[in-house]
Amino acid sequence: MRQEQDPDHAAETIPATEAAATTEAIPAPETTPTTEATARTEPSEPPEPSELGTSPEPTESTDTSGPAVSIESTDTSESVDPIESVSFSLSGASAGFVRATPVALGVAGYGIVFGVLSGQAGLSAAEATLMSATVLAGAAQLVAVELWADPVPALAVVGTTLVVNLRYLLMGAALRPWFGRLSPAQAYASVFFTADENWALTMGELRSGSGRGAFLLGSGLAIWTFWVLATLLGATAGGVIDDPARFGLDFVLTAVFLTLAVDLWEGRSSLLPWACAAVVAAVSAHHLPGYWYVLCGGLTGSLVEAARHDE
Amino acid sequence: MSDLDPTLVVILAMSVTTYATKAGGLWLLGRIDLSDRAATALRALPGAIVVSLLVPELARAGLPGWTAAAAVLAVARRTDSVLLALAVGTGAVVSLRFLL
Questions:
Q1: Which positions in chain A touch B73 (Cβ < 8 Å)?
Q2: What is the rounded average pLDDT of the residues A32-61?
Q3: Residues in chain A closer than 8 A to B91 (CB atoms)
Q4: What radius of gyration, in Å, describes the C-alpha atoms of chain A?
C-alpha cells in the first residue's frame, strides 16, 4: 500500500516523511521545504474565508486577492501558535475522500494482489478481507502473507507486523499539533485510518492551514473502502487458480517486495544499511530457525542507519 | 481456549498491534521526546525488512527468478507503475522457466 502511480504524490511523500522525523511537539513550519507548501497551496482551493477569519492578523483575512501568499505568511510568521482552529466536519471528511480517491485506485491494485496472494498462503477470502478491514496496513499484511504457513507462526507474524508498522509512531506524532485540538474520540478514531498514502495527503492539507481535522478520516475511508473491496475481489478471483506456479504467482510476492524496495529506496544513503541488512539476513536465514532472519536483518539495517545519523 | 481459530486470533492480534502503533505516536510522543536518531532508526525499518525478506527468497530463485527480478526493478524504477512491473516480472518468470 505504500506505492501508487501518482507522481505528484510520490514527490510529496519524501519531504513529508523527512519532516516527520523532525516534527515533534512543534509544528515547525520552517522545517517544511517552502516549495512543497507553495505547491500544495496554490493549485488547491484556498481555505474558506470563515476559517481564515480566525487568523491572528485580521488584515490578512480580508486580502482575498492573494490567498496563497497570506497563508504562507501566516504559517511562517513568528506567532506563538501558527495553527488556526481545527474543525472536524463532514465537508473536511468529504474533501479528504475526494482527494484520496485517485490514490485509492492505485491502492486497489495492491489490494487485488494481496487478495490473490493471501489465498495462495491458505487464507480464506473472508479471512483476507477481515484482515484488510481491521489491520489496514499494506506492507505489514504482505509481509504477514509471506510468513504465513500451516500452522501459523503467530509470534513471527505478529512480531514482524509490529516492527514493520513502527513507522506509524512517527506519522501519528506528526499529526499531534492538529489532532491535539480534536476531541480524543475524533482523534483516536481517525488514526485507525492512517495509511502511508492518505497520511501524506493529510499532512499537506493540514500544513496548508485549512484546519480540516476530518481530512485523515475522509481520505482514510477512501483508502479503506478500495483496499477492502479489492482484497475481496482478489481473494475470490484467486481461488479459481489451482496451479499457482504455472502462472508465475509464486513469484508475485517477490516482485511485490521488489517494487516496495524501489519505493523505499532513498538514494545512495540507503545502500549501506540495506547491504548490512542483506548480509545479516542471509547469514541468519542459514543459521537460525524460522523467521528470525527478518527481524535480524531489519534491525541491523535500522541500527546502521541510526549509527551514522550524526553525519 | 483450544477451540479458538488460530487464524482469527492472529488477525486480531495484528489489528491490535497495528492500531497500537498508529495511535501510539499520537499518544506517547506527546509525553516523551523521541530523539532524531531514534526517529531515523524507525524510518529505516521497513526498507531493511523488505530487503531481509528478499534475500533468501532471491537466493533460491534461480536464473529465471533473477532475470525476472531485474526486469521488475527496471520497470518499477522507470514507470512507477506497480502493476506493470508485476505483470512484466511474472510474464518473464513464466516464459523463462519454460525456455530454460
A1: 258, 261-262
A2: 37
A3: 248
A4: 21
* Interface contact flag, A188 B23, Cβ < 8 Å: yes
Closest CA to A16 of A166, A124, A164, A171: A171
- Specify whether A149 is located in the same domain as A5: yes
Question: B7 to chain A: which residues are within 8 Å by CB?
Answer: 123, 127, 152
Checking if the pLDDT of B27 tops 70, the result is yes
Tell whether A258 lies on the interface with B, counting CB pairs under 8 A: yes
Domain containing A10: what range? 1-264
Question: CB A152 to CB B61 under 8 A?
Answer: no
Alpha-carbon distance of A125 to A82, in angstroms, equals 47
The angle formed by the CA atoms of residues A149, A143 and A171, to the nearest 5 degrees, is 145
Q: Do residue B82 and residue A4 have CB atoms under 8 angstroms apart? A: yes
Strand segments, DSSP code E, in chain B are none
* Contact (Cβ atoms closer than 8 angstroms) between residue B91 and residue A248: yes
Domain boundary among A229, A246, A264: A264
Nearest CA in chain B to A291: B53
Q: How far apart are CA A114 and CA A256, in angstroms?
A: 9
Please give the average per-residue pLDDT across A265-277, as a whole number: 93
- Per-residue pLDDT at B2: 54
Q: Provide the residue count of chain A.
A: 311
All 3 cell numbers of residue A284? 541468519
pLDDT per position as a tens digit, A214-261: 999 999 999 999 999 999 999 999 877 766 667 777 788 888 889 889
pLDDT at residue A9, as a whole number: 40
A254 and A285 co-located in one domain? no
**Residues A168 and A58 both lie in one domain:** yes
Helices A154-165 & B36-59, crossing angle to 10 degrees? 130
B43 to A20: CB separation less than 8 angstroms, yes or no = yes
The owner of cell 491535539 is A180
The number of folded domains in chain A is 2
Confidence class for position A311, pLDDT limits 50, 70, 90: low
On chain B, the residues whose CB falls within 8 A of the CB of A111 are: none
Which of A164, A259, A301 is closest, CB to CB, to B72? Answer: A259
